[in-house]
């Protein structure tokens, strides 16, 4: 499978410290690929680099055969890559509908496209249609996560980057969010998923990478990673992972 998104030998600096050290990750068309690791491993930094939000010290990010290293963030969105960030980052004093409209900023002249995108978001997340006039800051945590993902979908991306979508959610909402991620993928969107819930992530992904101290410590088929006791014990929570439903 040829890569739709290819991250090659990527290095990122934070001051003098090298946060990512020669990371290489591929995401094929139609795939879900997950990136796992402890806090501080560099997962969010990786997604920000792909989106053009932080500078690249070395290496390449290539989308559909075109390098993105010098492409500004808004143009990366326009080309088909969108991020749902860690912590949701909704605009609390704007309504749900206004938040969704901001996600379509790069397509603001294409009213029919925006209407279709919003209809799709409302189908995936009916609660957002019900709450469309409500201030985003008054939503529950789960509803805010749905809004963050919905806002990212408003640009009609080919690649969706999800940063910790289950963070802070009750188990029943985690299941709902992962079911929706699978449905988004079934609609033809390739997904690069950063997630601390290793069991859930590896259950829906085709392949996975494990980051440790800015380097790739393991990679492979998701099912193999999930069943590998060495990987479980070292990176994925050990016995707790094996018995988690």
Going across the major beta sheet, what is the strand order? Answer: 6-7-8-3-9-10
Q: What is the helical fraction, as a range of percent?
A: 25-40%
Class of secondary structure makeup: alpha/beta
How many beta strands in the DSSP annotation? Answer: 10
- Net shape: globular
CATH fold type of the largest domain: Rossmann fold
Tally of DSSP helical segments: 11
* Overall average pLDDT: 89
Q: Quickly give the CATH architecture of the largest domain.
A: 3-Layer(aba) Sandwich
Radius of gyration: 17 Å
Structure description:
Residues 239-245 have low confidence and may be disordered. The strands form two sheets. This protein has a six-stranded mixed sheet, with helices on both faces. Strands 2-1-4-5 form a four-stranded antiparallel sheet, covered by helices on one side. The two termini are 31 Å apart. It is an alpha/beta fold and 245 residues long. Helix 3 packs parallel to helix 6. The protein contains eleven helices and ten strands. It has two domains: 3-80 and 160-243, P-loop containing nucleotide triphosphate hydrolases (Rossmann fold), CATH 3.40.50.300; 93-156, no CATH class. Strand 9 and strand 10 (215-221) form a beta hairpin. Helix content is 39%, strand content 26%.
């Amino acid at each position: 499978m040829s890569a739709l998104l290819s991250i090659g030998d990527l290095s990122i600096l934070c001051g003098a410290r090298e946060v990512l050290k020669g990371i290489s990750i591929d995401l094929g068309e139609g795939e879900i690929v997950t990136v796992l690791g402890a806090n501080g491993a560099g997962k969010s930094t990786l997604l920000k680099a792909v989106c053009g939000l932080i500078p690249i010290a070395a290496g390449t990010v290539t989308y559909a055969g075109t390098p993105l290293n010098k492409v500004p963030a808004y143009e990366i969105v326009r080309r088909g890559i969108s991020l749902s960030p860690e912590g949701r980052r909704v605009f609390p004093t704007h309504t749900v509908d206004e938040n969704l409209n901001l996600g379509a900023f790069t397509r603001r002249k294409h009213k029919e496209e925006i209407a279709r995108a919003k209809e799709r978001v409302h189908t995936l997340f009916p609660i957002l249609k019900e709450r469309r006039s409500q201030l985003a800051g008054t939503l529950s945590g789960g509803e805010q996560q749905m809004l963050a993902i919905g806002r990212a979908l408003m640009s009609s991306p080919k690649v969706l980057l999800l940063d910790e979508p289950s963070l802070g959610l009750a188990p029943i909402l985690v299941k709902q969010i992962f079911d929706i991620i699978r449905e988004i993928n079934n609609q033809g969107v390739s997904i690069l998923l950063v997630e601390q819930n290793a069991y859930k992530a590896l259950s829906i992904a085709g392949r996975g990478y494990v980051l440790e101290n800015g380097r790739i410590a393991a990679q492979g088929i998701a099912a193999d990673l999930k069943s590998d006791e060495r990987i479980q014990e070292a990176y994925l929570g050990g016995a707790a992972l094996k018995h988690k439903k």
